[in-house]
């Protein structure tokens, strides 16, 4: 963000750290978010370059990452932008369902706010568990290494219009990742354009699409910095977090499903499906998925993939009263989400769990994004069933957020992922 503490704005431009193209090849040093990097992938990224961002994202120790970051700055591998900037970013990709698409958005420093303030909201329940390791790393490196992914709703598209007027020519950064997604970044330094974006976002609600833990860790870090520095009202860099923002309208936002697999031998017995109309389906997982996706969006539906010698089941809700009974006090917008109903009406009773809080703490369900990976454990006899889901619509995400509610954990899969290392946001001058 800008070095001068100036406003109570919801958004500030960045003075980011970026890799020096004369020092490293961008393809060798950027990486996916830390939470999708397997141990084998980590080793491969570390071997690829001594300056890979993975050395900072997944270090042996937090202090080691802090020392490396300072070393890279001293030797010129990372350079600080001299001008405050907002960055326009496009991702051209091949989707998990085989289609092609392009998603666009912008990156800036967004003022942190507690969820109960209502300005920035989570969209789904997160896994219970400690964030201490990520907080320790943030305390050490004093920088946002990866962006939080945020959504906003602006039918007029004012930020896009302001920024695209200054997006032309070759991008400042470009690379193609292992999935074939092409990442392109354009730097916008025009003061009037930045001011227009600030005005457009001033009263805008932001919904976190991905990076809830990163955001919550940044909040804790901010509060620690405030306590350490006393009661000054001046803005600090730690009052903001690096965020990539996509308009829910007109910027190519698409949501993909996350399926549920229950390992072991628990059968999906008829009593668990008593509130659903059930139709047997023969065919491949892809054919079953097509049948599922053909169900009208306003009907709760899911499919159950069973052992190879048994037909799949297409389940559509026929007893809405059962949903009200199983989800007392839950906002109507959440009751329209397939994953929420599946969890409350089928999976909780199946697993002997009393409520959504117990479910969130349980590790009895595996969350799998790719269709074949969801059905494979059933084929191998490692699971009795996989529950195949449709993706929530963008409208459902918007409605749940507007209700001040959250979806169950892993309800959405936003693709493509935002990679780390293109922009690093330092939190101390």
Structure description:
This protein is of the alpha+beta class. The chain has two domains: 11-254 and 415-426, no CATH class; 258-390, no CATH class. It has helices spanning 26-29, 39-48, 54-57, 62-75, 132-141, 158-164, 191-201, 212-229, 285-293, 320-326, 338-351, 356-361, 371-379, 394-402, and strands at 11-12, 17-19, 78-80, 86-94, 100-111, 120-122, 143-144, 148-152, 173-176, 182-188, 206-210, 240-247, 255-256, 259-263, 276-281, 301-305, 312-317, 366-368, 383-388, 413-414, 425-426. Strands 1, 4, 5, 6, 8, 9, 10, 11 and 12 form a nine-stranded mixed β-sheet that branches. Strands 15-17-16-19-14-18 form a six-stranded antiparallel β-sheet. The chain has a two-stranded antiparallel sheet with strand order 2-3. A hairpin with a 5-residue loop joins β4 and β5. α5 packs across α8 (212-229). It is globular and about 65 Å long.
Give a short summary of the structure.
This protein has 14 helices and 21 strands.
Structural class: alpha+beta
Biggest beta sheet attributes: 9 strands, mixed
| Strand segment tally | 21
What portion of residues is helical? 25-40%
Q: What fraction of the residues are assigned to beta strands by DSSP?
A: 15-25%
The total tally of domains equals 2
Give the termini distance in whole angstroms.
Answer: 10 Å
């Amino acid at each position: 963000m800008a070095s001068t503490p100036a406003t109570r704005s919801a958004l500030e431009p960045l003075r980011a750290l970026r890799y020096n193209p004369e020092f490293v090849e961008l393809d060798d040093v950027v990486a996916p978010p830390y939470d999708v990097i397997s141990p084998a992938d980590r080793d491969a990224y570390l071997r690829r370059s001594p300056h890979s961002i993975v050395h900072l994202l997944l270090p042996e120790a937090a202090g080691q990452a802090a020392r490396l970051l300072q070393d890279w700055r001293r030797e010129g591998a990372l350079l600080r932008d001299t001008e405050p900037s907002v960055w326009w970013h496009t991702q051209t990709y091949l989707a998990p369902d085989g289609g092609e698409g392009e998603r666009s958005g912008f990156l800036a420093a967004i003022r942190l706010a507690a969820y109960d303030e209502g300005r920035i909201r989570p969209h789904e329940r997160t896994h219970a568990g400690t964030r201490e390791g990520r907080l320790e790393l943030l305390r050490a490196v004093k920088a946002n290494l990866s962006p939080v992914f945020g959504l906003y709703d602006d039918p007029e598209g004012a930020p896009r219009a302001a920024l695209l007027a200054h997006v032309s020519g070759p991008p400042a950064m470009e690379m193609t990742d292992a999935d074939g997604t092409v990442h392109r970044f354009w730097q916008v330094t025009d003061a009037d354009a930045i001011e227009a974006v600030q005005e457009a976002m001033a009263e805008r609600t932001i919904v976190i699409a991905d990076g809830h833990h990163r955001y919550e860790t940044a909040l804790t870090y901010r509060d620690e910095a405030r306590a350490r520095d006393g009661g000054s009202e001046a803005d600090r860099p730690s009052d903001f977090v690096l965020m990539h923002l996509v308009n829910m309208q007109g910027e190519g936002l698409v949501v993909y499903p996350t399926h549920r697999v229950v390992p072991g031998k628990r059968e999906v017995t008829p009593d668990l499906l008593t509130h659903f109309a059930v139709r047997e389906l023969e065919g491949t997982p892809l054919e079953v998925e097509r049948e599922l996706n053909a169900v009208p969006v306003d009907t709760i539906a899911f499919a159950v993939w069973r052992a190879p010698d048994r037909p799949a089941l297409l389940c559509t809700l026929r007893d809405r009263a059962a949903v009200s009974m199983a989800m007392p006090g839950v906002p109507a917008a959440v009751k329209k989400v397939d994953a929420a109903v599946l969890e409350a009406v089928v999976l909780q009773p199946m697993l002997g769990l009393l409520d959504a809080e117990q479910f969130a703490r349980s590790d009895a369900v595996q969350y799998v994004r790719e269709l074949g990976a969801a059905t494979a454990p059933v084929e191998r006899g490692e699971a009795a069933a996989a529950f195949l889901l449709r993706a929530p619509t963008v409208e459902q995400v918007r409605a749940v957020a507007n209700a001040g509610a959250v979806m169950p954990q892993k309800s959405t899969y936003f693709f493509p992922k935002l990679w780390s290392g293109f922009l690093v946001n330092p939190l101390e001058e």
